[in-house]
Design a protein that fits this description.
Extracellular side: 1-17
Number of helices: 15
Distance between the termini: 169 Å
Shape: elongated
Protein name: Septation ring formation regulator EzrA
Organism: Liquorilactobacillus mali KCTC 3596 = DSM 20444
Subcellular location: Cell membrane
Radius of gyration: 65 Å
Coiled coil: 141-200, 331-411
Number of strands: 0
Structural class: mainly alpha
Length: 585
């Protein structure tokens, strides 16, 4: 019984849960349907408002105001196309969208939410396209109005420009010379184009009038430029250049009469400039303005070059004549130096050999100087005969001649300095040879004072070789014509050999003197030390038989130091101290 009661309670609880779930689902479903219905209704209302705004747009008034503008041709075609597209949208497409929205209201009330959502998305695209068309229509209408205003403005501006151009041509036609006929012809063409533009604009065909406007602006700009450019060009060919040519010709004739010469054929050049002036008059008459500018620049350049050349010749003459006196003295001074140099070279060449092309270089300088002297003589002859002189060329030549003269005098001095030392060098060489002879005889006397038993063959050969060098030097210096370069080289070699001989001689004197002292000193040890006696005998043999004084000294010095350390150093110091004292006295 109790078990049955428990089962009943469980069944009741389960039923309660199920009923609660059903209620919750029902409530959620109710609110979901309500939410979707409200959302769709809101979007439908917004789209109705968009349709109403498009229908009530100000585009209608703008179309009506634009229709009042006189349009024709391509402009009218474009306007009609724009208007028809807009009216089709207002009268057909928007009513269809409104009707469709009413149907969606009914479908939404019957809970066909997914269908409504799908259709609303499709209407979004249609309304977006309708908004774009409205915006484009406004822009196109504004463009038509703006074009109208712009063309009116342009018409007034171009008319004013035309009137100004016409006044300028009438008031200043004398400033345009041969160009006036073409300018008036072009003005007439602009007037014709302007009339066509005005007619097309008045008819409202702004597309076509825009193309005419481009042509009109170009023609007007060209005429404005011509009116600006031509007067100065015409003034140049009419007044400025002819006056300048007259001035150049008068200056040229006057300077030619004053013996001026020129590199340019002025008669021919003046004729060429006059031809260019005539050509430019034709260019102006045909309105060939680019060619006229180029020709004008060429004429101006040719005239400026002519002025520059005339002025250059005047300045050059002043400079040449101003420097001529100094230049003549410079040439004379260089010639004087040259004569003295050649005389001195001839004199010295009798007694000395030239080893540095002094004579050849001097002769070349003489030839260079003769060229300058001849050029100077030619100039002086022209002045004397009143011949024409191109002073700019003479000035350039004179500058180069001065540079050449400076180089000539510098080389003259260099050659002179190089040979002037020959006599002094010879006297110094004689003195050196006398000193060499004195030195070698002094060495011989110093050796003879020692009464040595003899001298080695090596030393004697070297002694006689150095003596022969000194004799050879003396012989070369006694010749009628001597080569101081060779003698200088021999002096250097002989001095070097004499220094070596002096060292050898001093070695023999010192070695022999020290050996004799050590042999005497060693006698005190001969009886006590047999090795001393034996070394002494060998040293005597080297000294008296072989004349090897250095070897003899080394042998006895070594033996003595063995029995008495420092003995050799003591004897050596005493010897050199005594030698220095004797030499200083």
């Amino acid at each position: 019984m109790g078990k049955q009661k428990v089962d009943i309670h469980r069944s009741e609880d389960l039923m309660t849960l199920v009923l609660s779930a059903i209620v919750i689902v029902a409530v959620v479903a109710y609110f979901s349907f309500f939410y979707l219905q409200r959302k769709n209704s809101s979007e439908i209302a917004m789209k109705k408002e968009q349709v109403n705004n498009l229908v009530g747009s100000s585009v209608h008034e703008e179309i009506l105001s634009t229709e009042k503008i006189r349009l024709s041709g391509e402009s009218l075609t474009q306007f009609e196309e724009t208007k028809q597209n807009y009216l089709y949208m207002i009268n057909h497409k928007l009513p269809q969208i409104s009707e469709h929205l009413a149907e969606l209201v009914e479908a939404n009330s019957h809970y066909r939410f997914f269908e409504v959502r799908r259709e609303l998305n499709l209407l979004d695209t249609k309304l977006e396209n309708a908004g774009k068309l409205e915006k484009e229509t406004k822009q196109n209408l504004q463009t038509f109005k703006k074009s109208n205003l712009e063309h009116q403005k342009r018409t007034k501006e171009l008319e004013q420009k035309y009137q100004n151009l016409r006044k300028t041509l009438l008031a200043k036609n004398f400033s345009f010379g041969p160009s006036i006929d073409k300018l008036e012809e072009n003005l007439a063409g602009i007037e014709k184009t302007f009339d066509s533009y005005s007619q097309t604009t008045n008819l409202g065909d702004y597309v076509k009038s825009t193309e005419i406007l481009k042509v009109l602006k170009k023609e007007t700009a060209l005429l404005e430029n011509a009116i600006k450019v031509i007067p100065p060009l015409y003034r140049s060919v009419k007044n400025v250049y002819p006056e300048q040519i007259t001035e150049i010709k008068e200056a040229y004739d006057k300077m030619s009469a004053s013996e001026y010469g020129f590199t340019t054929d002025f008669d021919r050049k003046i004729s060429e400039i006059q031809t260019l002036i005539a050509t430019n008059i034709v260019n102006l008459s045909e309105l060939e303005l680019d060619h006229a500018k180029e020709t004008d620049q060429k004429i101006d350049q040719e005239i400026n070059e002519s002025y520059d050349e005339l002025e250059s010749e005047i300045k050059a003459r002043s400079e040449v004549e101003g420097k001529m006196g100094t230049f003549e003295k410079f040439v004379a001074h260089a010639r004087k130096n040259q004569r003295e140099l050649l005389i001195e070279l001839d004199r010295l060449n009798q007694n000395y050999t030239f080893n540095h092309n002094e004579m050849e270089n001097a002769k070349q300088l003489d030839e260079d100087l003769k060229v300058i002297e001849q050029e100077l003589a030619d100039y002086q002859e022209k002045i004397k005969d009143k011949e024409r002189v191109v002073y700019s060329a003479t000035k350039e030549k004179q500058a180069k001649q001065i540079e050449k003269l400076e180089a000539i005098e510098e080389k003259q001095a260099k050659i002179g300095d190089s040979v002037q030392t020959l006599w002094n060098d010879e006297q110094e060489a004689h003195e050196a040879v006398r000193q060499f002879d004195f030195d070698i005889h002094s060495m011989k006397r110093d050796l003879e004072k020692l009464n040595l038993p003899g001298l080695s063959k090596e030393y004697l050969d070297y002694f006689y070789a150095v003596n022969a060098e000194i004799d050879d030097l003396a012989d070369k210096l006694d010749q009628v014509k001597i080569d101081m370069d060779e003698i200088t080289k021999l002096l250097i070699d002989t001095q070097s050999d004499l220094d070596v001989l002096n060292e050898k001689t001093n070695d023999i004197i010192d070695s022999a003197s020290l050996t004799e002292r050590l042999l005497q000193y060693a006698n005190r040890y001969r009886l006590r030390y047999p090795e001393i006696a034996q070394s002494s005998d060998k040293a005597y043999h080297l000294f008296n038989q072989s004349y090897d004084y250095a070897g003899s000294l080394e042998l006895i010095a070594t033996a003595v130091d063995k029995v008495e350390s420092g003995a050799y150093k003591k004897i050596e110091d005493e010897y050199y101290a005594n030698k220095t004292s004797t030499t200083s006295k």
